[in-house]
Amino acid sequence: MEVNGFSPSPTLEKLMEGRQRTVSAHLLAWLAHRAATAETAVNVRQLARGANLAVADVNSVITGRHVPTHDVLDRICVSIGMGVADRAFLQQLRRQEQSLAHGQLPQHGQDFVRTGIRRDDVLSRQELPERQELPERWMLREQRERERQRQQLQERLERLERREQQDRREQQDRRERQLQDRRERQQLQDRRERQLLERQLRQEWRERQPVPAFGQPDPMQVSCTAELVAALKAVHVWCGAPSLRELERRSNMVLRRSSISDMLRGESLPDYERYVAFLRACGVGGANLETWVFIWRHLKALETPGTAPWMPRVTASK
Q1: pLDDT of 54-75, one tens digit each?
Q2: Hey, which end of the chain has fewer CB within 10 Å, N or C?
Q3: Are 19 and 29 contacting, i.e. CB atoms less than 8 angstroms apart?
Q4: Distances (CA, A) of 271 to 33, 38, 268
């Protein structure tokens, strides 16, 4: 077989008897011949390493999916030990397949029978590799690919825009919540300051209330514990009847509201420290306080056996 004046060697011509005359078929036949003569099989990876090419490129050439370039085919032929004449023949066959892949018929009335390729195969392109399509199909595929990329870009831009809008709404909501929280905290702080100011004003007003130095209940009339409790109630009324909380505050927390309540309602002699703290909280001091202390000690002596004769007697004041 002769292609544009180039003929294969007798060995390659003998190997291709009854086979389709394509580049991939010639390469496969030569590899099979080499494996049979050298008793060693060469795989695609070893062939790619010898030709200094990628495994995928070598595999596509061997299987016929792509028409190789001049350099790629020459490297493969050299790596498998093909002669100069066979390499030149395969290069001419490669050019012919490349022209057929682009929809061009052989020039100068070349005989299809001599090349082993029928005219029906050229016109129908059924025997061409899958990826060797017409330029119109390639253009249509590229157009579809660009349209798909454009749609993907548009969708991505829309997603980014929606995300930005959502972020802006979230930031606006966050600022509104922060402003509302700040306003509520300010209102709470103002309410607390107002309550504190009102409490201070009430306290100052209570402290400014006059406690008369005359007209105090006379403790010298007390002769028993029940009369002392009644006298303490009278002292509480005499000082303006302050609340139990106010008395607790005036006593610097020495007295408790429960202790004051028990003292004013009880029937037993109150504790000395609480008794003195209550009198001081009611404004009793000086000589009057000493008289109240004397009465408490006198009643305590009456409750303690053997101590009453040693205490001075109480004389009611006129």
Answers
A1: 888 888 888 878 788 888 888 8
A2: C
A3: yes
A4: 125, 123, 9
